[in-house]
Specification:
The protein has 14 helices and 18 strands. By secondary structure, the chain is of the alpha+beta class. The chain has a 10-stranded mixed beta sheet, with helices on both faces.
Length: about 475
């Protein structure tokens, strides 16, 4: 029975490329699927695009492929990524320019059409269209401030690009697991929903599960492992191997990693990733299939091998998720430390002073957020603080103050409220950081759009060889 081996690429913009090289050299992979877009990455790319319209893509894709292409070309490995972000054509052109400078040739395909901003900006749309996915708030409250809106595409355009011979496929906002499902459908001959033939829903569900297990790079092979008392046993994280999946025509799969690499693939590390970012394990929605994890079976075979079977799938929804971003004011933040004795009381006095100055100077702001790194910045209200007597005996207390405001001038001036307290405020300060650290805030607006409207505008462009 035919099988395909596919390896995990990056799990986020800026992730480590070296484990990918190990999968190519020693993991026997035919495809690498690389996920550069976390939920908020488009906001980062939008800020890049505001500075330079030629940007808007994950710029790590160029050095990444410059490192990997010689290894890939030698072994016939093909590469799929969503590093195109808000500008997939720009990403492809940047890669081709870098390849041309080296005299390299590659068949590159670009997937576009996920940009749905014009639809959300349409003032004639029904009042209840594109409501916030979780709160139900109407879009008109932020419409005039929208700066991007991208739908999560599925695997179909990736399959089309690979079928046409692309060696490198660069997409915009494609669902994370679809980056992996596309090569599997292409290589194993599965049928997607929407085709004339009956879709292979259970096989697609297996493929979606494989993609979900591999989409977070090292987190699928023991990285970021949170099991109490067990994470210490994960070997050699300095040389972690990213997960690799071998998938057969019937959809069954084995999750493993390249030999001689660090990390660990076993029942516990795989099941942790399986449930990562899953709201309903019986209805995990994607553009290609709705996955029911309830019947999945994970069989630990030892030797960094876990067999995956049993996923079930139903027809995908008729709407696609959209992540949109809108201008949401500005923020400024300052971090300030106080040392023993009376560290906690000093921090409280400094905070009270800043609140007094904000009020007296009538600084317009929506919120002053305060947290204490080392005490509650990771868990917020879920982390109860010790009593003040104990906090006053602490060696040091760090205080992070973040001002959120719609007024850029107010954000720019926030840091000027602090320096004088270096000599005239509570004693034993440890110094300020971030006095000039201001930035624009982009709010995220999740919503749904009819998939037929989006897919009608999806394009796959083949840019041909470079020389």
């Amino acid at each position: 029975m035919k099988s395909i081996r596919i390896g995990a690429g990056l799990g986020f913009y800026g992730d480590n490329w070296e484990p990918i090289a190990a999968s190519i050299e020693r993991g026997g992979v035919q495809f690498i699927a690389s996920d550069h877009l976390a939920e908020l990455t488009l906001a980062i790319l939008q800020k890049d695009r505001q500075r330079d319209p030629a940007l808007g893509y994950a710029r790590d894709v160029v050095p990444l492929l410059m490192k990997l292409w010689p290894l890939m070309r030698e072994r016939g490995v093909r590469f799929v990524c969503n590093a195109g972000g808000l500008n997939p054509q720009g990403a492809a052109q940047a890669v081709l320019a870098a390849f041309k400078a080296k005299g390299w040739r590659a068949r590159v395909a670009v997937v576009s059409g996920d940009d749905v901003l014009p639809r959300l900006l349409d003032p004639h749309a029904p009042a209840d269209a594109h409501a916030h996915l979780f709160t139900g708030a109407p879009l008109h409250s932020v419409r005039e401030r929208l700066v991007f809106a991208n739908a999560y595409l599925g695997a179909a355009p990736i399959v089309a690009a690979l079928d046409a011979g692309a060696e490198i496929v660069i997409t915009g906002r494609v669902a994370d697991a679809a980056l992996f499902l596309g090569p599997l459908v292409h290589g194993l001959g599965w049928t997607l929903a929407g085709a004339t033939a009956q879709p292979d829903l259970d096989r697609l569900a297996q493929g979606l599960t494989v993609g979900h297990l591999l989409e977070c790079s090292g987190q699928g092979s023991g990285g970021n492992f949170g099991s109490q008392g067990a994470w210490q046993a994960i070997p050699d994280l300095a040389h972690i191997g990213y997960p690799v999946a071998e998938v057969w025509e019937d959809g069954s799969a084995v999750i493993t990693k390249a030999p001689g690499t660090g990390g660990l693939v076993n029942f516990d590390t795989v099941r942790q990733q399986l449930l990562y970012e899953v709201h309903n394990p019986h209805a995990y929605f994607s553009p290609d299939v709705v996955l029911d994890m309830g019947s999945i079976r994970l069989q630990d075979e030892g030797g960094d091998r876990v067999r995956l079977t049993g996923a079930r799938g139903t027809a995908p929804p008729d709407r696609l998720k959209v992540v949109a971003g809108y201008r949401d004011g500005h923020k400024a933040e300052v971090t300030w430390g106080f040392s023993w004795p009376d560290a906690w009381d000093k921090a409280q006095a400094a905070e009270a002073t800043i609140r007094t100055l904000l009020k007296e100077k009538r600084v317009p702001h929506d919120e002053l957020y305060v947290e204490y790194p080392g005490l509650n910045s990771a868990h917020g209200a879920l982390a109860p603080l010790p009593k003040p007597d104990a906090l006053n005996q602490a060696n040091e207390i760090w205080t992070r103050l973040v001002l959120r405001t719609q007024d850029k001038a107010a954000a720019d001036g926030f840091g000027r409220l602090f320096p004088w307290m270096g000599l005239s405020g509570p004693a034993y300060t440890c110094g300020f950081t971030g006095l000039h650290n201001t930035s624009e805030l982009l709010g995220i607006w999740p919503t749904l759009v009819p998939r037929a409207e989006v897919e009608a505008g999806v394009k796959v462009e083949h840019l041909g060889d470079t020389a």
